[in-house]
């Protein structure tokens, strides 16, 4: 019984002596992967449970959940998330920041402003970048890109600049970027 | 509007073969003495190359007439008359096959279905091209019955499914891979090669010969060939309009087994991809067709329900989104809900290597979905995906289907809830 740990130490010593380079430890790859592979939490909400708001008017469950109906119509009751908390202030779930929300279109740019935006972009596309124009006219970058189109030379210059930046990336950063893309695909497929 | 008479549909297909006694009393050598070329011509008539595809047996009618008129006097030996072995076992051997009897008993088929019909269901058109001895007609009836019950149950149970998911779900319930699995679960084995001498209880098909792809609707639109040539109609609307099978695939050029084509470029798309799966699936469809023809509509409905619609298919795994947050915002705008807001329900380890954020999506005071994630943005996207899935996978529960009203004493049909359509973002 006492011999086993001693033997194991002896074998590891022998192994480390026999191989001069790095040894690939099982504990560092397989176990880490296995530890990261978590099943969904049993209390995670199922997508087959339709939220009250998504029930069509013809559904009998709408009439059955009178409390939800009242809450939905009056807006007085707390959110569904924290039913066991006590005060209304605690029950309020904080919203994420503006950059984590779907932008609401403001429709604040007039036709003359669009013409001005196009003129600025055509005059000096380097100075009046998409970001700066979006800041100036208080609209989204997408809207700026819908309105204006940069010249072919400017687009080529920007592309070259981007290529130069990408050329400086080493293998680790390129791999990390590719992994991020793969994770995004998996996320949209619901497999992450 | 008159009722659809599903039990009368396609009754002409089996008119000549429903009575096994009559079929057995016929001298088999007559119909078996067709010259090889003629039989191949008959096979190609059953292919979907004709634009308006009617029942396969109807197009065979002139050929059958011609066959019956062949001279049958004289007493030569049957082998000499037919000039070679039969392509598939003689129907009279079906009664003595233990495998067939076992299969019949294993499926708990009614005694109204003779083992000869079951034996015929096991003969693929690639093994025996003669339409009276292969399962093409039975499989056509079976496929229409199966597709009808599968689609009506899917739409009644999940009235908000997007079209692409509906197509995929139909394929999951009634497509070739699913039916192949069912056939294997039924314990059907295939013969190494088709021939007269094999056991009639084995599935007989030849992967090197043309066969019938049994997943088309009644007819193929004339524009389909053009659209395939110019690679148009590949989007979802194109699949709805030009798709000629219930899975939204246009099978006009793909399933056309034009074996005379010597252009190597086209052979890959022309040839059938998975011949064993197709043969197994056609057998399963033929069994459904046999149940429908011999036992009636209710029996076939029960058979389809218990063997196919009872299988588990997780629809929530079929979804793939592109812009889920925007799609959810468009949905809320369409349905006059408040705009969706992402809220942080809980978090742990924000500064650690593996943080977890639980983000919920709210519309007004109602929560639409929530999900955990390693960062705020992925958690928000996952929560939006969950909310969209909850919308699309709404189910009114156990509701009636239109085929319930086929019964004589059925209550009048109450319109079921079906959503106006998918969200365009």
TrEMBL record, chain A:
<feature type="region of interest" description="Disordered">
    <location>
        <begin position="71"/>
        <end position="97"/>
    </location>
</feature>
<keyword id="KW-0687">Ribonucleoprotein</keyword>
<dbReference type="GO" id="GO:0005840">
    <property type="term" value="C:ribosome"/>
</dbReference>
<feature type="compositionally biased region" description="Polar residues">
    <location>
        <begin position="20"/>
        <end position="29"/>
    </location>
</feature>
<feature type="region of interest" description="Disordered">
    <location>
        <begin position="20"/>
        <end position="43"/>
    </location>
</feature>
<feature type="compositionally biased region" description="Low complexity">
    <location>
        <begin position="71"/>
        <end position="88"/>
    </location>
</feature>
<dbReference type="InterPro" id="IPR024388">
    <property type="entry name" value="Ribosomal_mL58"/>
</dbReference>
<dbReference type="Pfam" id="PF12824">
    <property type="entry name" value="MRP-L20"/>
</dbReference>
<protein>
    <submittedName>
        <fullName>Ribosomal protein</fullName>
    </submittedName>
</protein>
<keyword id="KW-0689">Ribosomal protein</keyword>
From TrEMBL, chain B:
<protein>
    <recommendedName>
        <fullName>Large ribosomal subunit protein mL44</fullName>
    </recommendedName>
</protein>
<feature type="domain" description="RNase III">
    <location>
        <begin position="100"/>
        <end position="188"/>
    </location>
</feature>
<dbReference type="InterPro" id="IPR044443">
    <property type="entry name" value="Ribosomal_mL44_DSRM_fung"/>
</dbReference>
<comment type="similarity">
    <text>Belongs to the ribonuclease III family. Mitochondrion-specific ribosomal protein mL44 subfamily.</text>
</comment>
<dbReference type="Pfam" id="PF22892">
    <property type="entry name" value="DSRM_MRPL44"/>
</dbReference>
<keyword id="KW-0496">Mitochondrion</keyword>
<keyword id="KW-0694">RNA-binding</keyword>
<dbReference type="InterPro" id="IPR000999">
    <property type="entry name" value="RNase_III_dom"/>
</dbReference>
<dbReference type="InterPro" id="IPR044444">
    <property type="entry name" value="Ribosomal_mL44_DSRM_metazoa"/>
</dbReference>
<feature type="region of interest" description="Disordered">
    <location>
        <begin position="72"/>
        <end position="97"/>
    </location>
</feature>
<keyword id="KW-0689">Ribosomal protein</keyword>
<dbReference type="InterPro" id="IPR036389">
    <property type="entry name" value="RNase_III_sf"/>
</dbReference>
<keyword id="KW-0687">Ribonucleoprotein</keyword>
């Amino acid at each position: 019984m006492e011999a086993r740990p001693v033997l194991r130490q002896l074998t590891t010593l022998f192994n480390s002596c026999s191989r001069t380079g790095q040894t690939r430890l099982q504990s560092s790859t397989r176990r880490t992967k296995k530890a990261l592979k978590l099943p969904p939490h049993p209390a995670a909400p199922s997508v087959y449970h339709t939220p009250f708001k998504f029930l069509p008017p013809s559904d009998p469950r709408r009439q059955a959940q009178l409390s939800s109906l009242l809450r939905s119509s009056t807006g007085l009751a707390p959110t569904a998330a924290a039913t066991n908390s006590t005060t209304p202030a605690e029950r309020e779930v904080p919203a994420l920041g503006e950059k984590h929300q779907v932008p609401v279109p403001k429709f604040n740019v007039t036709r003359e402003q669009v013409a001005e935006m196009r003129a600025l972009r055509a005059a000096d596309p380097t100075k009046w970048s998409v970001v700066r124009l979006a800041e100036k006219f208080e609209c989204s970058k997408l809207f700026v890109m819908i309105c204006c189109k940069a010249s072919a030379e400017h687009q080529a210059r920007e592309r070259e600049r981007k290529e130069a930046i990408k050329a400086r990336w080493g293998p680790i950063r390129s791999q990390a970027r590719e992994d991020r893309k793969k994770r995004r695909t998996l996320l949209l497929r619901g497999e992450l | 509007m008159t009722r659809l008479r599903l039990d009368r549909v396609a009754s002409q297909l089996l008119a000549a073969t429903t009575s096994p006694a009559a079929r057995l009393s016929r001298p088999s050598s007559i119909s078996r003495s067709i010259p090889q070329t003629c039989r191949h011509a008959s096979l190609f008539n059953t292919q979907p190359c004709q634009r308006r595809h009617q029942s396969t047996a109807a197009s065979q009618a002139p050929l059958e007439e011609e066959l019956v008129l062949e001279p049958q006097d004289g007493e030569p030996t049957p082998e000499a008359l037919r000039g070679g072995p039969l392509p598939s076992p003689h129907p009279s051997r079906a009664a003595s096959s233990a495998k067939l009897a076992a299969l019949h008993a294993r499926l708990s088929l009614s005694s109204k279905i003779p083992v000869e019909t079951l034996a015929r269901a096991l003969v693929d058109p690639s093994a025996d091209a003669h339409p009276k001895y292969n399962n093409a007609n039975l499989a056509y009836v079976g496929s229409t019955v199966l597709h009808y019950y599968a689609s009506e149950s899917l739409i009644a149970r999940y009235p908000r499914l997007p079209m692409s998911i509906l197509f995929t779900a139909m394929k999951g319930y009634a497509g070739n891979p699913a039916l192949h699995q069912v056939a294997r679960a039924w314990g059907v084995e295939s013969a190494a090669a088709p021939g007269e001498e094999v056991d009639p209880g084995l599935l007989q098909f030849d992967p090197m010969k043309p066969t019938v792809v049994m997943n088309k609707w009644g007819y193929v639109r004339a524009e389909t060939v053009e659209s395939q040539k110019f690679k148009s109609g590949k989007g979802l609307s194109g699949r709805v309009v030009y798709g000629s099978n219930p899975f939204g695939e246009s099978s006009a050029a793909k399933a056309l087994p034009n074996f005379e084509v010597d252009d190597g470029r086209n052979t890959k798309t022309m040839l059938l991809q998975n011949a064993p799966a197709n043969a197994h699936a056609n057998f399963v469809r033929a069994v459904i067709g046999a149940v429908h023809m011999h036992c009636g509509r209710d029996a076939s409905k029960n058979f389809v329900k218990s063997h196919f619609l009872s299988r588990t298919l997780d629809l929530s795994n079929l979804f793939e989104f592109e812009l889920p947050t925007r799609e959810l915002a468009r949905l809320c705008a369409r349905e006059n809900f408040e705009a969706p807001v992402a809220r942080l329900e809980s978090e742990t380890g924000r500064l650690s290597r593996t943080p977890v954020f639980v983000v919920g999506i709210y519309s007004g005071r109602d929560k639409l979905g929530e999900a955990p994630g390693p960062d705020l943005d992925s958690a928000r996207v996952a929560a939006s995906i969950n909310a969209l899935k909850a919308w699309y996978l709404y189910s009114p529960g156990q509701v009636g289907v239109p085929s319930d009203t086929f019964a004589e004493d059925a209550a009048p049909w109450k319109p079921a809830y079906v959503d106006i359509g998918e969200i365009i973002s």
